[in-house]
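User: Can you fold this complex?
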Amino acid sequence: MVATLRDVARAAGVSPATASRALSSPDLVAPARRALVERAAKDLGYRPNRAARELITGRTGNLCLVVPDLANPFFAGLAKGVQARARELGHAVFVADSDEDPRLEAELVTQLGAQVDGTLLCSPRMSSAALDALVRDNPLVLVNRRHGEVPSVVIDNTDGLRQAVRHLHALGHRRIAYAGGPSGSWSDARRRDGLELAAHGLHRLEVVDLGSFTPTAVGGTAAGDLVAAAGVTAVLAYNDMVALGIVERLRVRGVGVPDDVSVVGYDDTLATLTSPRLTTLAVPLARLGRVAVDLLLDGTADADGRGVASHAPVLPVELVVRGSTAPARPVPPAEPTEAHR
Amino acid sequence: MVATLRDVARAAGVSPATASRALSSPDLVAPARRALVERAAKDLGYRPNRAARELITGRTGNLCLVVPDLANPFFAGLAKGVQARARELGHAVFVADSDEDPRLEAELVTQLGAQVDGTLLCSPRMSSAALDALVRDNPLVLVNRRHGEVPSVVIDNTDGLRQAVRHLHALGHRRIAYAGGPSGSWSDARRRDGLELAAHGLHRLEVVDLGSFTPTAVGGTAAGDLVAAAGVTAVLAYNDMVALGIVERLRVRGVGVPDDVSVVGYDDTLATLTSPRLTTLAVPLARLGRVAVDLLLDGTADADGRGVASHAPVLPVELVVRGSTAPARPVPPAEPTEAHR
DNA sequence: TTGTAAGCGTTATCAA
DNA sequence: TTGATAACGCTTACAA
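Assistant: Here's the predicted assembly.
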């Protein structure tokens, strides 16, 4: 049978209470006895029973992370960061995948919430009402979404789009398309805002809204045809997978990237995998996860050892210019203008 | 305060013992009382305290999955399957990522092992000795690796390589390269075996071993140069990321895929993302995860409702032919033979 | 600084 | 079929 605290206490010749203190709050016990207990614990291979501890303290030492789709490299990268930071802080992480179903996300938070100290929720499309309900009885941190006063970590979408637009503008592009993410997605809404701000405010750009697409290469394929028909010289995609879908589809259609159309992705999850390599907005994924954990555990220091400044940090995004963007052709490809029917 | 079993019992006018039975083993209690208890539980919003239950039953209702790298789409897909099946069976899943460090994998199994009913371990490079030690005191199922009598799920690497080799042979390729995975990787060893079997047994193929590479696009880039210098008309890569790295590098070098060299990947995790689309061996990732869970929980039925036949199922792999393979050129590209030295 | 003892919320054992 | 009652392993008042 496995060693219990009583066994340790007996072996060390002290009471269970002292043994408990020696291991959990070492400064409350005299050095001599503490050493005795530590030795006994080691000898017996003692490992505290988490259930018993949880039962009395109410804390589990565990977190949970709920995401829409683990197979999406964005969320996988996030999970990796979360997991790493949680481990540093002595916590384990339940990971749950909702298969892009916001209802299931709520259910998962509720179910898993019962056995964790807090939850990291990444739910771009859950309704505000559902979110409110969850917040009411679960300590949680929102990732990549802001909602009232709920603690959250987001990325600077506005600045990201500003960078992308400025880049394309500098390359001479004047008419660009946006291939959006799932309708209802919080990030997509912010990016649309940022795009409008950047395009109409700072630069004189015409923007064609191509609509909403599944955030996968399949969605990108659909978007690709619209790009070809939109008479644009550049396109911003909701994420890298959509961007690659577009590139692939354009190639099939005989439209060169970047020669005929420049393409900008988002996330930088697939950088090295393609040709031409994708110009994209790099998101500090691992950091996003780490900061979220710090926020949740109310740690006073983040991954870099600095204090978490705010209860709603905004992480920077950085444009990485690679081969998929190039100067606009002097004359954009003619629009397929076969008169209106 | 949250409702406890005592509260439910009181509200239903029965003893705590009866309330417990009514909810956990309904058939042990008279229908009338059972209904009473169920109603009270519902009214009070009763949710059992898992810690208390665990403390006495010794079961947690949780699993854990340990993988080398969540950012690798292979493991992300696996995690997704594991998570889905576990949820169906009422279990939650801790996910831990070792950053490709076998020592950390062992540590994670030990640490998390204390708070789960069992562990799914995906550790391609852990030493046999370390594995033995873990098996000794943790219920675990090995994924993608076989080790003695330990329950495990693997894929049919031998058949996979046979399919790939047969395909290339049929296309007229007679001299092909293999760009291997991390040295020490169990899967890589099996694939090398399979390759030898297929190449020397069934077909008359010459195989050039390019060595071991990091299982990422970066590793593939390095492999790409070796491919170009090897005087082969085709190459098999350890996985899709390596394959894409090779494709990309060859393109930079002016070697056409599939015109000059055919490329075959493994896993089918990146199929739609590239051009030419990758011919690859599709691995049933989600199923791998689901079967592993079934094996661990000793479920009598797997994801498809059939019984898990064996304690070491071998899942089939399927060659998916896409654009990255084509008939060999009549004359392979000349080897760079500038005399020796 | 240490020990005694009372729980935490549940299930399991035993009698009734 | 049901109800007392005793655990499960730990932490924490409270007393000494």
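The longest strand of chain A covers residues 206-212. Chain A has a mean pLDDT of 92.
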